[in-house]
Amino acid sequence: MDIKHLQYFIEAVNCKSFTRAADRLFITQPTISKMVKNLEEELGVQLFERSRKKLILTDAGQVIYDQAKLIDKAFTNLQQELDELRNLKKGVIRLGLPPIIGTSFFPKMIGAFHKKYPDITFHLAEHGSKRIEEEVASGILHAGVVVLPANEDAFETLPYKEENFRLVLHPEHPFAHRQEIELPELKREPFILFNKDFVLHDRILSACSKAGFQPKVVSESSQWEFIEEMIACGLGAALFPESICQNLSSKVCTLKIVNPSITWKLAVIWKKEQYLPFAAREWLSYTRNQLL
């Protein structure tokens, strides 16, 4: 049985005639009669009372007619839904964004994409890179922004940004008047770090270790705004990427870090050999054109 069997049967019932139904379907009367006969043989029931001049449903025919209409409606809705998805009239994109990548670039790009495809919605998840990688790998997220390196065997990557880190201090700190500072000079400073969900947590600890010291960590947070407030209250110092430093208030100041400098590189990732919805694929294509 395929959907055409049911659709021809429905039309025959609605028209109460094989001939009229055939005319409306632009097929021959023997074709629709054969289709209905095949349907009866497959279901093992008689659909019409053959003794009547006009088509009258049997009890079994009425049950099948009622269900066939539901199936036909569902099939029509399915086709419409798929057409809308293919034409990008609707869809959902599940995207992971670290809360420390800056507040303007991706919102502006998402806004421009939404203007082009107004019925496509974004479900945004704000996590650190580690969790974003896990959720892209598991299929919870279609794509995400992470700090490189990422697992090249598991993910396709679209690198798009590299920048240095700066030291963030209270304006009255003894180092505040300087333009730059060497990382080993911070060995006695209390540090406020991003929490362990963030690759930056490990990156900063590793950089300090290579510089010959283990930082004294007094607090951790997932929100750069909260870390800024703690610095403004004199709790300690932190290392922020340059893009975040551009958004800081006058309650703190920043210095360039040298010998060694600390950098990060960001990329959009998505899982290799994973089916992606039409909307997600279009967003990745749009993003690639914007970033490259």
From TrEMBL:
One of its GO terms (molecular function) is DNA-binding transcription factor activity. The keyword Cell membrane does not apply. InterPro entries: HTH-type_LysR_regulators, LysR_HTH_N, LysR_subst-bd, WH-like_DNA-bd_sf, WH_DNA-bd_sf. Residues 1-58 form the HTH lysR-type domain. Residues 68-95 form a coiled coil. One of its GO terms (cellular component) is cytosol. Keywords: Coiled coil, DNA-binding, Transcription, Transcription regulation. CDD domains: PBP2_CidR. It comes from the Bacteria. NCBIfam families: trans_act_CidR. Belongs to the LysR transcriptional regulatory family. This is LysR family transcriptional regulator. The lineage of its organism: Bacteria, Bacillati, Bacillota, Bacilli, Bacillales.
